[in-house]
Amino acid sequence: MVALTHPFINLRRQLHRIPELGFEEFKTQQVILDTLSRLPQHRLEIKTWRTGVLAKVKGTAPTRILGYRTDMDGLPMEEETNYAFRSEHPGRMHACGHDFHMAIALGILTHFVEHPVKEDLLFLFQPAEEGPGGALPMLQSEAFQEWRPDVLFALHIGPDWPVGTIATRPGILFANTSELYIDLIGTSGHASLPHRSNDMVIAASQLAMQLQTIISRNIDPLDAAILTLGKVTIGTRQNIIPGKARLEGTIRTLSLESMEHIKHRIRTLVQGIETGFNCKAEIDWGANYCQVENQADLTQAFMDWARTEGDVQVVECREAMAGEDFGYFLQEIPGFMFWLGVETTYGLHHPQIEPKEEAIPIAIDLMTRWLRKKANSSY
Ligand SMILES: CC(=O)N[C@@H](CCC[C@H](N)C(=O)O)C(=O)O
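A: This is the predicted complex of the input protein with L5K734KM.
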């Protein structure tokens, strides 16, 4: 772990202590607003939107708005790192790097308040990326539309790459996602009377196995797709036949067509369970995120530029099956997202993840130079 010498590493640690779930980022929002309030105000315009923040750094002779987005929320999990600055919120953790993302955004913003460029720069602090999804409602908000940027950039910490490496690609970077919740409703009863009950352990087990056939039997093997069940809840006690089961999961695809096809197959299999087990079933698709599709020319230009700058390694990576609601912004505004190497032993969403903080100043420096270049060019 690096020493506490860099102001934005310090800020990351401050944010790391206070992870909050989507649309509950009250303390986080306050830290962002407090940080902004300590900067010279004459170049800053600030708006809040729900628990998010929009901060505009006014340019010297603006004709366009260049945007930079960070997410803000933490995850509902117990932290198990060795950090001295562990989460102070039980059952909450920044395990997806949003503390890094916010500190980096504030580092870039601070630079431009002190060293303005010609164009306006918009910094979006977006709530609820992990769920239920803040990007789409923020994109549709009046607050955003009033300052709608012409281009938009973002990064995500990348545990698989060493510090000093960035990885991205023109085109699809992150998958389409849909959450999946299936409730099965049968009849509970005494363990000794199976014929008078309708056991949802058996129905849920059958369904879990059948769902796994969708990817292996119904999807083109060359078209990547995932159906993961992350949580199954059934029963209360060893001698009670449970009449209710809940299966929770996520679907990931690299095309919208595959997403629709998988949902169609899920509906069909669930209907089969209803018929076969004489139970009722309800499906809820939860939050859906569209793919993160990097604008090809801009992304290629960024990768070429970063290679010539020579201080970071640039990798053209494959698509990831992770989801990111930043994709909604990129459906309407040209831009890109990239992975920032933070080289960790444990991956994203792991309770022991300790991303390397040396990546924070590297990212601030890189994106400061990129935004300066874009703000001074005609595109
Ligand atoms: C980068 C990352 O880990 N993103 C999350 C986004 C959540 C997607 C959605 N709520 C779902 O689970 O379907 C991810 O899990 O990929």
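The longest strand covers residues 176-185. The domain at 7-173+291-376 is CATH 3.40.630.10 (Aminopeptidase).
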